[in-house]
Write a structure and sequence with these properties.
10 helices; alpha+beta; four-stranded antiparallel sheet; single chain; two-stranded parallel sheet; about 450 residues
Length: about 450
Amino acid sequence: MKTLFSGIALVGALTLTAHSAVAADDAAKTRLVLGLDDCVRIALKSAPELGEAQADIDQTAGKLEEARSYRYPQIEVLALFGPSPPAKKEDLNATDKRFKLNELSWFSSANATFIQPLYTFGKISENMKAATHGIEVERSRKEQRANEVAQKVKEYYFGLMLARELKEVVLEVQESLDKARVKAQKMLDQGSNGVEESDLFKLDAFSGEVAKYLEEAKKGENLALAALKTRLNLPISAQLEINSERLVMDEAVTPEFDIYVERARAHRPEFRQIAEGLKARSALVEAAQANYYPDIFLGGLVSWAYAEDRDRIRNPYIDDKFRHLDGGVALGARWKLDFGLTGAKVSGERAQYNRLLSTKQFADANIPLQIRKYYLELKEAENSVTAMKFGFTNAKKWAVTALANFDFGVGPAKEIFDALQAYARMRAAYFQSIYNYKLAGANLDYAVGEPPLPAAK
């Protein structure tokens, strides 16, 4: 019986992360009957991880818009208002005109400069390219998180099914023991020689142990159900049922290992993350190297100032900052020499690119290894199901024979205990193998990068 309830303990361990959610009265009154795909769909809609991933996408999209904006003119306006001394044309030749505070008047001015980038040697275009690939990186990361959410939902869903199957095994053993005790009591009352009072004590002792395991099975079921509700963002008080009543094997034929690896290289989000990330990092290296070169731009200036007590001097050699109207357009080059800072930035970006190359090598080696692990677990569980089905079928025959012999008074009570223990252990191992098979299949879907829902495949 210990092996039987190791499965129950496993279900409890899988669901230790379950916690209480805020109760909702309306949800408590509504009974939900959901299948596996329904649970995955609800979890994907409410998963906070996907909200975080979408925020990262929006943030990277903002960087793309920022990079694009550098293609447009940059305009800067400076407006001033303040006191100014008076000045007349006849004062041009004055050499001793003194400043008097009581003669101050007011002036206003506005200066506007604009710069239209023409050619930046890749500073703008490479940053735009990096942001574009960065968006694809974040989209792939969101897809990866969606696959993780689906994987966890499947683990809880199958865990709940396993807990209920194990509970049914215990109830079946308990029912057989109850029938044996009733029969033993009847034979003892009739004075039959095939049963002793000690047999009743043995049956009662074993029944107590089975009752203990039944409570553990119920606890495992409740924990698995609570974990599933939490993952679906449902309150604990919600009435949730799953429409998959029994834990049964799939009829699909398992493909070869190489097919899974090919699918992973085509669909696994991490591979797309790395590919897009390398393109983004390469663009950032090019953008950093572009800082070695100047920016070519078209520049313009408009400057206006007015003061009432000052005469306008129309002389190109005299610039009156309090009253004038000037402007012009020019082709310019802006070149920043930072004595090593640009080289350090280029080295830093190239280091990040090389780091991602190492990540690619790690993924190329370890993702197929992860797939092989889940593939071997799937094949092991598939073979175990066949073996355990043969085992518990014969153990069932043994138990039926032991109970029948006991009924006829030709078999000891101990034979019942041994047969029921073997049956319960093998029956539990059978369901445990099916659970392992389904969980390995879910893990393979994740490792390959299959979409969480059939409609998206």
